[in-house]
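Hi R.,

Quick one: here's the DUF1801 domain-containing protein sequence you asked about.
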Amino acid sequence: MAEKEKAGFSAQERAAMKERAAELRAEAKREKGAKKAAAEEAELLAKIEQMPDGDRQMAQRVHSIVTSAAPDLAPKLYYGQPGYARGGKVVVFFRSGQMDKERYSTFGVSAEAALDDESGFWPTSYALVDPTERAWEQLADVVRRAAG
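And here's the predicted structure, written out as tokens:
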């Protein structure tokens, strides 16, 4: 028998196998994360589709704004309503006023949002009742600032 067969794998071969195993684990983890993200977005979109007219259209617009202004925020449900998170923590969210039996729908930011300023005073939620294009532009600006 050759020396290599008696001794088993060389240190270099064992290191290469460990490296490859780590690569495969990392790849599986990424795939699992991508599947989870896709499932969470599908749940969020299904929730939006269940909303009453008016709120559904606003939620769809919020979704479009958030996904384009802050693509690094991941869609996920937040207390049964659309939310957008970084690292699993919701940064911004939409609440259907009709589903909550409230006078207006709300766009809000959580404590995770990067809105702190030197004044020590900033809004954390906004009422939405038939927003104008100017209001949608302001919402997009809030999303960009909140996402950091």
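The longest strand covers residues 89-95.

Cheers,
M.
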